[in-house]
Amino acid sequence: MSSQQDSSSAQVDQDQALETQEWLEALEAVVDREGPDRAHEILEKLVDLARRSGAHIPFSPNTAYVNTIPPGLEPPHPGNLEIEERIRSFIRWNAMAMVVRANRETPPDGGGLGGHIASFASLATMIGCGQNHFWHAETEDHGGDMVFFQGHSSPGVYARAFMEGRLTEDQMDNFRQEVDGHGLPSYPHPKLMPEFWQFPTVSMGLGPLMAIYQARFLKYLHARGIADTSGRKVWVFLGDGEMDEPESLGAIGLAAREKLDNLIFIVNCNLQRLDGPVRGNGKIIQELEGTFRGAGWNVLKLIWGGYWDPLLARDKEGILRRVMEETIDGEYQAYKANDGAYVREHFFGKHPKLLEMVSRMSDDDIWRLNRGGHDPNKVFAAFDAASKHEGQPTVILAKTIKGYGMGHVGQAKNPSHQQKSLDLDAVREFRDRFNIPVADDKLEELPYYVPAEDSPVMKYLHERRKALGGYLPKRRQRADEQLVVPSLEAFKAILEPTAEGREISTTQAFVRFLNQLLRDKQVGPRVVPILADESRTFGMEGLFRQIGIYAPEGQKYTPVDKDQVMYYRETADGQLLQEGINEQGAFSSWIAAATSYSNSNRIMIPFFIYYSMFGFQRFGDLAWAAGDMKARGFVLGGTAGRTTLNGEGLQHEDGHSHIQSSLIPNCISYDPTFAHEVAVILQSGLKRMVENQEDVYFYVTLMNENYAQPGLVDGDQEGILRGMYKFKSVGEGNDLRVQLMGSGTILREVIAAQELLEKDWNIGSDVWSVTSFTELRRNGLDCERFALLNPEASDAPVAYVTEKLNGTQGPIVVSTDYVKSFGDQIRPFVPAGRTLKVLGTDGFGRSDFRSKLREHFEVNRHFVVLAALRGLAEEGKLPMSKVSEAIAKYGINPNKANPQYA
């Protein structure tokens, strides 16, 4: 290349550099005069123009690895920073002391209590900021903010409540020791502290998912005019490791789509989970920024504390920012596990100009360089911006240190998540680090520390919460309002027999019940139907027109079925929640409605209906959490049973949900056969949960099989609710007699078997409709326990099953559309000496006609007869040859595959 070309090229480079500088200066001028939002608007228009002009500008959801809010835009902190720091220090000490004291004594069985110190240590500044300046308690003028505390941070929440006088020293000393009734649970559990915790946030992932739907339900209540929720926020603390749970990110799209600007996530990015770094080879903050920004969230990065500001201001060449960007999380974790000299060598030593930048700083100065989540000024700025943002949910990605302040034994160390014991040197280091006024000779005792009530610290602590309406967390146990539900007579049409030749399913009976309930002027508006894209499956599309589907922006299009009576109608004040193909999200919506009595002082009545197979095995963790939260409402498993949904096959046929629901103590489960049973059960549920405000929820299975409905016989109501009643008796004078029990659609096979037994074998029988094997078992266990603990009582209660079967004759045969263990629940309570045969649908489902499936699973009328004959033969009342005769008579193949393994 000639010297003339070199000169020309250099001139071009110089001109381009000058032009670039002019553009940058122009942008800086816009930022100075009109602010960053205006600058962002201009840049967006420039990028759009460039792309439309053919320029290739790849999309990037990431911004630089620095704080989103620059120092010049941070609002002044309104509090007393010195006092707030002292409050945090005392809370840190008491939280640590509580956990360590609980684990000092080894019980006789050798099992320790466990506990966590490190999670709260990284969160203390942020929780303190929320408590002092942002989180409103429920008052007459404010419905109260919802705060989902990170589960493992509970020691710090207890420690603050202890300072506030809301917990006693005895309770603190009984951390994780609850059996005697005065301890504190390991994590947030409303069931165990019903006046304290609002939300269970462990197991991990459930908090963020439930919080999104709680925020959406607040918007729903407001849109429907049921409650003014306009000033309320939902704050959610999450761990960066927790974000790996699919539930944590599974619904963030809905939050953005519905513009939930009442929702604020704070992801505690301490870079560490239980076993090691969260993203040792990457950068979790950058990854999460891309995920949330791509989903449409407002993202605030809170990475660096104020001690970094002068260094960043001097970083004119961008070297510091580049090194920050290139350094991975595994390295950042190591920096805070060591000391200032280590940081100087391994971080600033990555570039000679960085070493020069910190050459006048001591190792202590370098060690003092803080992370954003521990800087109260930066935290306040982020919380303030998040609380004022409109039109989007906000996520704050806050960089912190796991085990902050725990010194050489715990800070940023891999095992710190499970750190629950500190030796005396570590306790002393902790005390000195936070300047706790505990003397050396008292350290061994690990005393709690609370300043005098009239001290500036305590006055400030109480004044801040008084200004925000009261203390948090705090839970309401009952709604103030009193609703009266319709009487059973209001559902007369469902209680009566169907007309000649008319057949309906229990699903249809439920829909009729729901429609009748919606007409009630008092409770109708409180009904919340929830569906996961199955309205038409269950015959509920009529609700589209009747009550509308909730959609915050209404319906901006003309639906393709507008000319039909039951067209798809979305409306801003719609009553029905249509959640799409999303059972976990739908159940989270159900939880929000089912806990509205507590969280919003409004009684709501949620009905969530879904394919039963896609229920408890899919949202079982949430169903357990619903029990913890004392949820109230109806969960309805449609197309239930292994053989009812005949054409769909293995993944659609439910034979075990009742086993799963039975594990939840406050979930009341029923498997009704007839429409009148459905009506009695649902009306009873309304009475218990709405009128009496009882802390239970109902699981009811429904079938899509049509048949004639016999109607309610007066007097059967008690048996329906308690779990069984005699439905039909035949052959009263016969010498041989059996007891036949069934539930769901299989009860109809049992009734058919009754006819065969009388016609073909001259055997009489009683048919029992069992609406709840689960409730029968619970009742039996109650009676059994009473007898165990009161051995000499003369008035010991008798199990309901025992009471009803006493005085009857013959072996007992149970047949259901669920696994054998479902019907087998009553075995301990069958009268002594009686034979019990249980039929059930163990094994994988498959597609075929219902009759073929019931033959395959050996629960049809012929197998009921076979089991009855076998029972009589075992009792010596028939020759065993009669069983062989029945096998031949009904064409049963004794060599057929065992359905349990087929």
TrEMBL record:
Cofactor(s) in the UniProt record: thiamine diphosphate
Keywords annotated in UniProt: Oxidoreductase, Pyruvate, Thiamine pyrophosphate
Catalytic activity reported: N(6)-[(R)-lipoyl]-L-lysyl-[protein] + pyruvate + H(+) = N(6)-[(R)-S(8)-acetyldihydrolipoyl]-L-lysyl-[protein] + CO2
GO MF: pyruvate dehydrogenase (acetyl-transferring) activity
Entry-linked Pfam families: PDH_E1_M (PF17831), Transketolase_C_1 (PF22613), Transketolase_N (PF00456)
Domain Pyruvate dehydrogenase E1 component middle: 498-710
Ranges of residues in domain Transketolase-like C-terminal: 723-859
UniProt-listed InterPro entries: PDC_E1_N, PDH/Transketolase, PDH_E1, PDH_E1_M, THDP-binding, Transketo_C/PFOR_II, Transketolase-like_C_2, Transketolase_N
EC identifiers of the protein: 1.2.4.1
Transketolase N-terminal domain mapped to chain residues: 146-301
Leading EC class: oxidoreductase
Record NCBIfam families: aceE
Function: Component of the pyruvate dehydrogenase (PDH) complex, that catalyzes the overall conversion of pyruvate to acetyl-CoA and CO(2).
Protein's recorded name: Pyruvate dehydrogenase E1 component
Native organism taxonomy: Bacteria, Pseudomonadati, Pseudomonadota, Betaproteobacteria, Burkholderiales
Gene: aceE
